[in-house]
Design goal:
This protein is of the alpha/beta class. It has 13 helices and 12 strands. The protein folds into 2 domains: about 140 residues, Response regulator (Rossmann fold, 3-Layer(aba) Sandwich); about 150 residues, Rossmann fold (3-Layer(aba) Sandwich). About 45% of the residues lie in helices and about 20% in strands. The strands form 2 sheets. Strands 7-6-8-9-10-11-12 form a 7-stranded mixed sheet, with helices on both faces.
């Protein structure tokens, strides 16, 4: 045998078992991640989801793979995104936002579903009960009922306001929109404020909606908690600044990016918990044994620079109540 042939055979003998072992190695579990939002805007929360997975020993790209599908605030895109995910060999589906969760539920995936939703998942039919949810579980972000509390805080921050705007997205769902509107309207009546309701479902309608609210004499704004508005956060904050319109929102990321204030649970911690639940299911837990979680702490966050730019002096009771002051 020639020396060159011997080296080739010897090398092949050494490499061949490694190749076989690589082919026989088990594939990484695959998570289908369906979001109503946009990847850039949701990055901080997607990272929190990854941290939750890591708490359970799963690192994306090493021990688990994730297929992301983004509706980018356009809920009509959810059905084709779901159909695409159905063709993948998924181990679990994660759905963030009520429209995404219901689209995933309706698709009848053969694997468990982990969600984050704002509405009561029992009332909307996502789960059988909070404690024994069935084939789907997750976190009920529980922010829709806080509209009235947000208006109360906004009026405490800006006592001079008499006419308040309410920005709604009808495409989020009739029940969610009606629930939020009623919560804010009841508070407005109690507080003696006039409420002006404006709808928006597109970027252009957000611009037009702000113009209409200013024309109507609105001097403060409440924005519905909605993934579409979350995905248009920069646009809404820029319009609020341009029109010098104090606003209150449902998540910290709005004042962190220049909005005036927010009141609600930590969305980042919610996404982290969704990651933990997805990791537990990958480890063999059944969704029915993982109760639907609800946040127990709600945070008041104020951007002090924005308050100063709007000419507002933050009242002492608000300063005391605030969980975070962004300087």
């Amino acid at each position: 045998m020639k020396r060159r042939e011997f080296i080739t055979l010897a090398g092949g003998a050494a490499i061949w078992p490694l190749a076989v072992r690589a082919q026989q190695a088990p594939a990484q579990p695959l998570i289908g991640f369906l979001s109503t939002r946009s990847p850039e805007e949701a990055a901080i929360h997607t990272n929190a989801f990854r941290r939750g997975l890591e708490e359970m020993g799963y690192v994306e790209g090493r021990s688990v793979a994730v297929e992301y599908r983004w509706a980018k605030g356009d809920y009509s895109q959810l059905p084709p995104l779901v159909a695409d995910l159905r063709s993948r060999p998924l181990s679990v589906v994660v759905a963030t936002g009520d429209p995404a969760a219901h689209a995933a539920k309706a698709a009848g995936f053969a694997v468990p579903l982990v969600f984050v939703v704002g509405l009561d998942p029992v009332r909307t039919g996502l789960v059988a009960s909070m404690n024994r949810p069935g084939t789907a579980t997750g976190v009920n972000f529980f922010t829709g009922d806080l509209g009235g509390k947000r208006l109360e805080l906004l009026c405490a921050m800006v006592p001079s306001v008499r006419r308040v705007g309410l920005l709604l997205n009808p495409s989020f769902g009739i029940e969610a929109v009606d629930q939020f509107r009623q919560s804010v309207a009841t508070a407005a009546q109690t507080l003696g404020r006039e409420l002006v309701v404006q709808s928006a479902t597109t970027d252009a309608e957000i611009d037009a909606g702000f113009a209409a609210l200013i024309k109507a004499g609105v001097t403060a704004l409440v924005v519905q908690n909605d993934p579409f508005f979350d995905s248009r956060r920069s646009q809404i904050i820029a319009l609020s600044s341009r029109h010098r319109l104090p606003g209150i929102f449902h998540i910290r990321e709005f004042p962190a990016d220049g909005g005036l204030m927010s009141y609600g649970a930590s969305l980042a911690d919610t996404y982290r918990q969704v990651g933990v639940y997805a990791g537990k299911i990958l480890r063999g837990a059944k969704p029915d044994d993982l109760p639907v979680l609800r946040p127990t702490k709600f945070e008041l966050v104020i951007n002090m620079q924005t308050a100063k730019a709007l000419g507002l002096t933050v009242p002492q009771p608000i300063l005391i109540a605030a969980d975070e002051l962004i300087e």
